[in-house]
Amino acid sequence: MADQVHEKWVRFGRELRRVRSSSGMTQRQLAGRLTMHYTMLGKIERAERTPQREHAEELDAILETGGTLSRLWQETSRQGNVPDWFKSVLSIERRAQEIHAYESTVIPGILQISEYTRALAEDRMITATPDEIDEIVDTRSKRLGAVLEQGRPLMWFIVKETVLLDVVGSERIMHRELGHMAELSESGVIRLQLLPADARTSIGLCLPFWMYRLDQTRTIAYAEHAKGGEVVDTPAEVEEFRTLFGQLQAESLPPSQSVTSIRKIMENRYGDVEEEQL
Predict the structure, then answer these.
(1) Buried residues in 4-16 as b, exposed as e (16+ CB within 10 A)
(2) Residue 226: phi, psi to the nearest 5?
(3) Are strands 219-225 and 209-213 parallel, antiparallel or unpaired?
């Protein structure tokens, strides 16, 4: 099983591979002059291990880079722990006049309460430090407020019903999360539709995606995957996502009926748990 890639250190690993290749040395040859095994060197190049300051300094000396790797190490170490791809999406999100999204795996990030985000991050990012988790929670919890500060864009979400049935963290957290979503929909901040769990269509099996209309002539799509996501901006590809969203809307419950279903799930699946905590 492959080790987890630390996105923050991908740039460092690529630069190390570049200067090593330019020197004409293999990983084994370079590692032979270092205080590390060649397999560890390979993991650093693939960003599967975090390099230490002494590694960068030693590499600079052997590869005669003039301090390039040490400077890059310092720059990377000062960076936050929010991945670059996520920062790009946040920037797009705050400029959008309309946001349309489909989510089939978890509650859309912009709608997550902090407890849900923390539980999700702790489960998925098993090698992350408490500070890294805190930064991710803080960044995600500010997303909705940051968007609303720019005005009140149309935000339309389609969420697969099974997402609401999967417990993240605890039943109490799920009760609060579903209540938050229902309130946002009832107050008109968002429009929300549920794709029923028993919907007889394969359309809902697609991966999550987002669409951001920036102005009258430009819409950008964002397709999620296990390691982050990909921004799509060619008109033909964006149109494919727009068509897919329309198909999902047709198969989903109307907004008012969706909120009713959310409230029923809160009561029937998580209600007693919440009452016991009060």
Answers:
(1) eebbbbbebbebb
(2) -60, -35
(3) antiparallel
Give per-residue pLDDT as tens, 131-150: 888 988 988 888 899 889 87
Tens digits of residue pLDDT in 218-238: 898 988 876 567 788 888 999
C-alpha span between 93 and 211 (Å, rounded): 9
Kindly list the distances between the CA atom of residue 28 and the CA atoms of 31, 35, 36, in Å, as whole numbers in the listed order: 5, 12, 10
First to last CA, the chain: 44
Of residues 182 and 151, the one with the higher pLDDT is: 182
- The burial class, CB within 10 Å (0-12 / 13-18 / 19+), for 271 is middle
Q: Out of 58-67, 116-125, 198-207, pick the least confident.
A: 198-207
Backbone φ and ψ for 9, nearest 5 degrees, come out as -105, 10
Alpha-carbon distances, residue 136 vs 26, 107, 124, 125 (angstroms): 37, 15, 12, 11
86 bridge partner residues: none
